[in-house]
Amino acid sequence: MKRSLKILSIITVIFFNIAAHAESIADKKINGVRLYDVFKNQGISETALQRALEFMDNNAGKTVRVKAKVRPAEGEAYMTDKAFAVQSKNLAIIDFSLPSDQRRLFVMNLETGVVNKYFVAHGKGSGVRLATKFSNLDGSKMSSLGFYLAGSVYYGGHGESLNLHGLEKSNDQAASRDIVMHGANYVSQDFVDSSGRLGRSWGCPAVSPAIIKKMIPLFKEGGVIYAYQKDLMTSTQSTPTLQEVKADQPDEADVDLPNEEEDFQAKK
C-alpha cells in the first residue's frame, strides 16, 4: 500500500509539472509554431519577451492593488487604492533600446499571435532620438522602465488617455507623476520624416492620436505594458531612482522642436 501511494505521489508530481509546463503562454502553438517563436520572429527582443511572458504566466487573472490618482472635477487630486484583474489576452512591450524613429511599441495578441508595431515617444529628460536615461522622480520628465498595469480612462490635455500604474521600484511613482499613455501629434511618420525622430513627452509613453483609440479598449482596466531597455535589466532593481546607459553613438543636440510636449504645455 505504501509503495502504491509513493508511486501515486510521484505520478501526481510529474502530472502537475507537465500541466504547469503545458500552461505556459510561451509554449502555446499557433499553426504549429510556439507563441514565443511567433513573437521572436516579429523582431521582439528575446530578453524582454521572456520576462514579459513569465510575468503573464505568474499574474494573469490575479487581482492587483495599485496606487491610483483621482482627479475630481472640483478640488485637488488625491491618491487612493484601486484593484484591477490582470488581463490575459493582450500584452505590450516598449523597447526603449530602439531609437524613436523606429516602431518600438509591440502590441501582442496572446491568443492569435498577431503583433502590431507602433511609434511611441519617450520623455524629454531621457534623451533626444535615443532614450538613455530613465527615472522615477517627479519633475524629471524622464520615462520609467518596468511593468505597468493600465487602469481607467483619463480625460486630460491630450484628450482620452490611459492611466498607468507602475508595478516595480523603477516606476512605482507613475500614477503620482501623471504618467499616462496619451495621443500626441508629435508621434507620427510625418514627424519622423520631417525631423528624423519623434517629438518627446514629459515622461509619458505617448502614441499617435489614432493609436491611443486602439490601445484604450485593448488595455484599460488591467492590461499589461512592459517598458524595457536591454542594458538596464539589472539597474532597474538596484538603482530605481535613476538608470543610465552609455549609448554606442552620440545623440542629437537637445533642441526642442515645435509641437513637442514642451511646446504643447507652453501654449496651454
Distance between the termini: 79 Å
Give the CATH H-level superfamily. Answer: L,D-transpeptidase catalytic domain-like
| Arrangement of strands in the largest sheet | 7-6-5-12-9-10-11
- How many β-strands, per DSSP? 13
List the helices and strands and how they pair.
Elements lengths: L1 H21 L6 E2 L2 E2 H6 L5 H14 L3 E8 L7 E8 L4 E6 L9 E5 L5 E4 L14 E3 L10 E11 L2 E8 L13 E2 L7 H7 L13 H11 L4 E5 L6 H4 L3 E3 L16 H7 L1
Parallel strand pairs: 5-12
Antiparallel strand pairs: 1-2, 3-4, 5-6, 6-7, 8-13, 9-10, 9-12, 10-11
Notable characteristics:
single chain, 25% strand, 26% helix, globular, L,D-transpeptidase catalytic domain-like, disordered N terminus, 7-stranded mixed β-sheet, alpha+beta, 268 residues, 7 helices, two-stranded antiparallel sheet
Q: Would you write up a description of this structure?
A:
This protein has 268 residues and is of the alpha+beta class. The chain has one domain: L,D-transpeptidase catalytic domain-like, CATH 2.40.440.10. The chain is 26% helix and 25% strand. The protein is built from seven helices and 13 strands. The strands form four sheets. A seven-stranded mixed beta sheet has the order 7-6-5-12-9-10-11. The protein has a two-stranded antiparallel sheet with strand order 1-2. Strands 3-4 form a two-stranded antiparallel sheet. β3 (63-70) and β4 (78-85) form a beta hairpin. 41% of the residues are buried. The model is unreliable at 1-22 (pLDDT under 50).
